[in-house]
Specification:
By secondary structure, the protein is of the alpha/beta class. The strands form eight sheets. Strands 1, 2, 3, 4, 5, 13 and 14 form a seven-stranded mixed sheet that branches. A five-stranded mixed sheet has the order 20-22-23-25-24, covered by helices on one side. A three-stranded antiparallel sheet has the order 9-10-11, with no helix packed on it.
Length: 611
């Protein structure tokens, strides 16, 4: 196993440990849980209306704005309420549910008439509400005794989430030493003729119906909404009073009576609400529908979330190991799309996936995995780049050192060709030496071009050079070299064009930047400036390095000269880089200067004529 392979495996293992370590924070926090709820709300809305048998088993009677305008104000007069219920009794509904709080005594004759009207129904459920909380000595707001006698009482509370949306209901609510079942739950119990509910740690059983509402979650039941407002048949209470209602639609059904007028305050937002919220009677009807149709929605649970998250991490790790580039992006995108599709399918199967948690885990896994891969590859690239740079410096030094031996090799090849050696051996040796001498000549040709420039035997390849583009390319290469010491390269480059040989000018600027990196401490900054005046263009490279003493500033441009400090340092060098830079600048008709002092950094400036 190579060192790179071992390092890659260690990086991936570390990445997995990081994601697993942050897993609880990604899964179990309020923000992510809210994101999960919002995702599932979107899925419920996209799913559309759910027409089922239970929606036909429930009918609503709405005390709406038109009823209030004609027979109001709210709350309705008890006599009016009794009158409407007397009409409703003619339809013989199975259960009548009053989503009203009838706790305050009214005019005695009206209360008596209301009590008599309730006696016309076989089953009646009256509403109760818990006022206050455990810290405020809560008390139950209960219906009047003469109304409640012989009838069922149930609580009217929903269970809004932190964002105010009602996604669930408490099947039972306790307080002040009393507990009541939910209005919709009690309506189903009476309609089905079930006995007392049977409670276990994991569920509540209502006859053959097992409701997955755990004791640990305070008997919270998710509401599986049939659709937006209007999913259930509805009649205005005013139509009952006017005799305009078709009473046959109430026969043998669960009828829920309540206020829907917008000013009543009995409206709550749900995943399917539009603008003004959903009326209380519609929410209760959806509770009834969820229980009768047994379309329960069960959260995945802690164990399920943990297993699902670990599976996602495994998928992301596999994708990062096996794929690169576009294929990796496609694989991770596929995982995300599959996750969303699973959210749609799971709701149909009766399970709520924590999509927010899963998406957070998936994004974190992909992000951390990608960063680890990038760090590994960047480190390998930086190492290889450094090696190439060091190799280039060594070759440059060798090129100058082997010029004399190269001449001897070429001369020897001529002597061997003319000597008294056997013809075949002489020819083979001569051919070999000559071939090698040509290869070595080509190797050092690039580095000797500067010397040829000085002698006038090689002309500059002048062309219009965009210094902004040229310097940006140089900086990008320089940043790779600077990364090993965590040195930043800053630029301030004017939009300037100059006539120059782009390859040689690039070599000169790059050499100044790499020198700045070599002789600067870690975590410092190198600056590249390009400025112009009427007569010249100035290219400056400033570092925060060790600086150069005044006595050495002239000699640093001599070939093979190195500061004694640099000779003792770990940085390798040949002492010819600045000499080559100076020659290039002079051949362009410019000059190079240096401003420096020990421990204050250095600033090298190339001045080129604008022409």
């Amino acid at each position: 196993m190579t060192a790179i392979t071992m390092k890659a495996r260690l990086v991936r293992a570390l990445y997995v440990l990081i994601v697993v370590a942050v897993l609880p924070f990604l899964i179990w926090n309020g923000f992510i849980q809210q994101v999960s709820a919002e995702w599932n709300d979107i899925i419920v809305r996209l799913r559309g209306a759910q027409a089922t048998s239970a929606t036909g088993a429930v009918a609503l009677v709405a005390i709406d704005d038109q009823t209030a305008a004609r027979y109001g104000p709210l709350p309705l007069n008890r006599a009016r309420l009794a009158e409407g219920l007397e009409v409703l009794a003619q339809a013989h509904p199975r259960v009548v549910v009053l989503d009203l709080l009838l706790s305050e005594a009214g005019e005695p004759s009206q209360d008596a008439r209301l009590a008599r009207s309730l006696g016309h129904f076989p089953h009646v459920v009256l509403g109760a509400a818990l006022e206050g909380d455990a810290s405020e000595n809560p008390r139950w707001i209960l219906p009047l005794p003469e109304l409640a006698q012989g009838r069922s009482t149930a609580h009217v509370h929903a269970a809004p989430d932190a964002d105010g949306d009602v996604r669930s209901v408490l099947l039972v609510k306790a307080g002040s030493a009393r507990r009541f079942w939910a209005l919709g739950f009690e309506a189903v119990r009476l309609a089905t003729g079930a006995d007392r509910p049977l409670e276990s740690a994991e569920a509540v059983s209502l006859g053959p119906i097992r409701i997955p509402a755990t004791d640990s979650e305070s008997r919270l039941m998710m509401i599986n909404y049939a659709g937006p407002e209007g999913a259930f048949p509805r009649v205005r209470f005013g139509d009952l009073l006017d005799g305009a209602a078709n009473l046959t639609q109430f026969r043998d059904k669960i009828v829920i009576v309540g206020v829907t007028a917008q000013g009543s305050g009995d409206r709550l937002f749900t995943p399917l609400s539009s603008g003004i919220g959903m009326s209380g009677i519609e929410i209760h009807a959806n509770v009834v529908r969820t229980i009768l149709d047994r379309t329960f929605l069960v959260p995945l649970g802690v164990a399920g979330e943990l297993v699902g998250s670990l599976l996602l991490i495994a998928l992301c790790v596999a994708a990062i190991i096996w794929f690169r580039g576009v294929r990796l992006f496609a694989a991770l995108t596929t995982v995300l799309l599959a996750l969303v599709a699973a959210g749609f399918l799971s709701i149909r199967a009766g399970y709520i996936l924590p999509l927010g948690s899963f998406l957070a885990v998936c994004l974190a896994a992909s992000g951390i995995g990608g960063i680890s891969e990038y760090a590994l590859l960047s480190r390998a690239l930086a190492g290889e780049t450094t090696k190439r740079k060091e190799y280039a410096f060594r070759v440059q030094a060798i090129a100058h050192e082997i010029k004399t031996p190269l001449t001897a090799i070429q001369g020897s090849s001529e002597m061997i060709s003319e000597g008294g050696m056997p013809e075949q051996q002489r020819t083979e040796m001569a051919g070999l030496i000559h071939k090698e001498s040509k290869r070595l000549t080509a190797l050092i040709q690039t580095f000797l071009n500067v010397e040829r420039l000085a002698s006038g035997s090689l002309s500059l390849q002048h062309q219009q050079v965009d210094l902004g583009v040229l310097c940006q390319e140089i900086v990008e290469r320089g940043r790779l070299f600077a990364a090993r010491k965590r040195i930043q390269i800053e630029t301030a480059i004017a939009d300037v064009r100059v006539s120059a040989d782009p390859d040689l000018l690039s070599f000169a600027i790059y050499n100044l930047i790499t020198n700045g990196v070599k002789y600067s401490p870690k975590n410092t900054t190198i600056s590249l400036f390009v400025e112009e005046s009427d007569s010249e263009v100035r290219i400056s490279v400033a570092d925060q390095g060790y600086g150069i003493a005044t006595a050495d500033q002239e000699r640093i441009f001599e070939k093979f000269y190195r500061l004694k400090r640099d000779e003792k340092s770990a940085e390798e060098g040949t002492g010819i880089g600045l000499a080559l830079v100076k020659e290039i600048v002079q051949q362009h008709g410019g000059q190079i200067t240096v401003e420096s002092a020990p421990n204050t950094g250095s600033r090298f400036t190339i001045a080129l004529p604008r022409g």
